[in-house]
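In response to reviewer comment 3 from the previous cycle, which asked for concrete evidence that the modeling workflow produces usable outputs, we include below a single protein chain processed end to end. The sequence was submitted unchanged, and the resulting structure tokens are shown without manual editing.
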Amino acid sequence: MYVGLVALGAAVVVLLEVIFGPIKGVDLGTLVLLATLFVVAESIGTMVDSGKTGISPSSAASLAAAVLVGPFGAAIVGFSSVLVIRRQDLVKRLFNGAQFGLAGYVSGYVFKLLGGRVGVPGEEAFPWAILPFMVAVLVYSACNTVLVTGLMWCLGELRIQRPRRMRWRPLATLELSSIGYAMLGLFIAAIWGAVGPFAVLLVLLPLFIARWAFDQYVFQQRAHDATLATLCQAVETKDYYTRGHCMRVAKAAGMIAEELGMPVERAQTMRYAGMLHDIGKLGVPTKILQKAGKLTEDEFAAIQLHPMRGYEIVREIDFLDEALAGIMHHHERMDGGGYPMGLAGEEIPEAARLVSVADVFDCLTSTRSYRTAWSAADAIAELRRCAGTQFDPRMVEALVRAVDREGWEVPDLVEPMKDECEQIAEREQGKAGTGAPVRVAGETSRS
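The workflow returned the following structure tokens.
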């Protein structure tokens, strides 16, 4: 219903413009070229934020249309989104076309209302055309935001909640990138009179090259993530009670970093530290990691070596940077009673203080060989009780706020994996259908 209403509103706007608007002066060739540019730009939008959000240079074409061919032309250029070369169902194409059409029309109308002249701007139009165009860009962005927000509300993706701290930096970065693309629309319009359609290539070709370079960066980041995830799996194969622990610690570390307002790049580094904080357990005997009872002094000493072993394993990975300190010192305590170096207070690197809280929180809310899982509320109470002595209070409170905002899903109990001999024995026993002994790999098993 919402998509239908948006599409109906866009259709009514165009119909009224056809009936009452001065559309005879619109240059058809310019309109077709701008629509083609819009479709191409929209088809190669760059996905960001782990594939959840996309940006494209299409706004530059739409805003250039608002200047060159007016509100009606900008609406038609926006409607051309239905022809985008991308896998989309009919409803999504319809909404996108109506959304961009309405945003283009309203921004073009505002540009005219504030004194902007439709057509190829001459030298006399500057700098006076800049102000109405900037307002048109902001209106274009606001229209798109309102329409998409309405759609997300109808889909159940947005809910009214109590006031909370907004993570505005990623949103601001994304919005500024989109506005930056849109501002190029005036440049396209300005040079259109001199070079005609080649204005498109002069402006957007460098942008497409920049997009290609950005895609290579994203690909590299995904390769990094996949490599580290593989290392995590190698650790977790040694202890079935810690399956998923590294990734959950990475998630909690990212939540704390974002709550503290760390830049995106540094927050990602904190996630890396969370993913690899236990990588040194590759050098700890499996029987110690899976021991259900109390550890002996020698066994605990072997456990205490894992931060340094972890550092040794990954120290040559350049992109880990600050994460190395988190791996090395995540078992230090604020009162100096931790290991491996007995650092205290601010001597402990910030990454280590952050990962320490994330690590213990997940440990407490997970079932282990020696105890059952705690609830998130009980785990938070324990973290607060130990704040100042074991944990950095600032990190604890950041985690509390993040969990309060986003919630925390307690992992399911992980059943121990049977070794290969046991699995083969059970299969053979099932085939035999009797309680007779089955010999497997030199051992005798009974059902």
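Strands lie at 46-48, 53-55, 438-440, 443-445. We consider this sufficient to address the reviewer's concern, and the full set will be provided in the supplementary archive.
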